[in-house]
What we know:
This protein is α+β, with helices and mostly antiparallel strands.
Amino acid sequence: xxxxxxxxxxxxxxxxxxxxxxxxxxxxxxxxxxxxxxxxxxxxxxxxxxxxxxxxxxxxxxxxxxxxxxxxxxxxxxxxxxxxxxxxxxxxxxxxxxxxxxxxxxxxxxxxxxxxxxxxxxxxxxxxxxxxxxxxxxxxxxxxxxxxxxxxxxxxxxxxxxxxxxxxxxxxxxxxxxxxxxxxxxxxxxxxxxxxxxxxxxxxxxxxxxxxxxxxxxxxxxxxxxxxxxxxxxxxxxxxxxxxxxxxxxxxxxxxxxxxxxxxxxxxxxxxxxxxxxxxxxxxxxxxxxxxxxxxxxxxxxxxxxxxxxxxxxx
Length: 315
C-alpha cells in the first residue's frame, strides 16, 4: 500500500532544496489538506534587489494536495505577482498549470508544473506586460505573432532536417532516444530480445565453424601439396643405380687392386722360405763386418754407470 503522506513529505523536501525560500509550506486547509506555495520568476538572482531588476513578471503557484496525491492530481491556482494582468495572462497560465497537472497524474508533479509556467514567463519577461491600453495590447499581439512565426520557422527547419536524415542517422537517433527514455522490461520485449540474441549467437557459431573448416582444408591442401612435391622429387631405383655407375667402377677397380696385392704378398712369402742358407741351418748369410774383433770390450767402463746409479738411489 502506498504511503501518500510520506511521498508528499519527500516531495516537499525536494522542492525546498530547489526553490529555497520561494517554496513555503502553509497550514493545512479546513479539510486538513496540505497547502504549498511556490514563487516563480523567469530568472534567478543572488539577492532580492537583483531579482526584482532582472524579472519584470512573476507569479505565485498555490497548491492544495488531495489525500491520495500523487495518485490524484493536485488543485493548483495561479496568482499574479507583478507585470501581468489576469486577463489574458492569468487565464492562460491557469490553463497551462491544469494541463500539466493532468498530464503528470500518478507521479509528483509540482516541479513540472512550476517549470512549465517559468518557461512562459521567460518568453514574456519584459516591461509593459501589465499595460491594458489598446496600443499595448496591439503591440503584445504583434510580438506574439512574431514569436509564433519564429517558432513555426524553427519547427519547419527541424522537420526538414529530420526528413533529410539518412536511415543510419534515424536508427542512431532512435537508439539514443531509447537509451534516454529506457525500454520497459515486459515479457513481450524479453521474448523479442531472446529470439534476436539466440539468432545472433547461432549465426556467430556458424561463421566460426565455417572459418575453422576452411582453415583445416587449407592446412590439408598444403600438406598434400608438400607430399606430392616430395614424391615427385624422389629418384627411382633405376635412376639411383644408374647415377652410381662411376662409383661401381671405382669399387671394382679397388677390389681388383686388392686381389693383386694379396697375390704379390703370397709370392713374397714363398720366396722367403726358399731363401734359407745352403748349409741347411735355416739362417741367411750374416755380415761379419758388423762384428769387429779389434774392439776390446774390456775397455768399456760399466762400473762407473752402476756407481752413479747407486749414489742416486742413496740420496
